[in-house]
Amino acid sequence: MLSVQNIGDVSSLVTICGAILAGLGWGFKAIVLNPLLREIKYLTDQFKGLNDTLREIRSHSDELEDRVNTHEVQIGRLQVLIGKTEE
Hints:
By secondary structure, this protein is mainly α. It has one helix and no strands.
């Protein structure tokens, strides 16, 4: 069993425990936290790219929808001009 002789022993023990905890904290940060933060940043950048692509696709889809609607109107007008209506 450990016996404490004086305040110097206690302070040495606290210092050693503090150093061990600091080392464990640094190791956890280096081994786990930093790679995790890098991956989170990478995934965030990928999501930004996906959002930009989705925005472009929606814009293109809206443009195509407008063109289809315009063609439907033109076809309807042509059918009226030649005397055919939808049945």
